[in-house]
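Section 5.1 Outputs to date
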Amino acid sequence: MNARVERSFPRSAACLPEIFAFMEAFFETSGVAEPHRNPTEFAVEELFTNLVKYSRGGTQDIRIELAREAGRLVVSLTDFGVEPFDIRTVPDAKVDLGIDQRKPGGLGIHLVRRMVDAIDYRYEDGRSTTTFVKSLE
């Protein structure tokens, strides 16, 4: 079954319940099984909140696209009017260090990388798009 939806949300963490409802509706109509939902929701929450907190220059809504294609879920978050930020270049968090030796930050992206099967990034004309793939197999 192939399905695709997209919607834009104001750049505010207060939109997270609305984003989760949007995702849940898509999961239901496109038949995404329960075990794949939580990792996908976590990844979207982490990426969305990072865009809200750290995207320099962003004032426009953030677009979220969800697609189910041939045994996989493809999710894109697009931010407009911002500087580039490729999460693939962020160093892994030092999870093997003691809590008192760690620097704050980076753990969310570290976890996202381990919960999804692939991450891609594109930047063009002030438009920053992070796409991840989650296998539904």
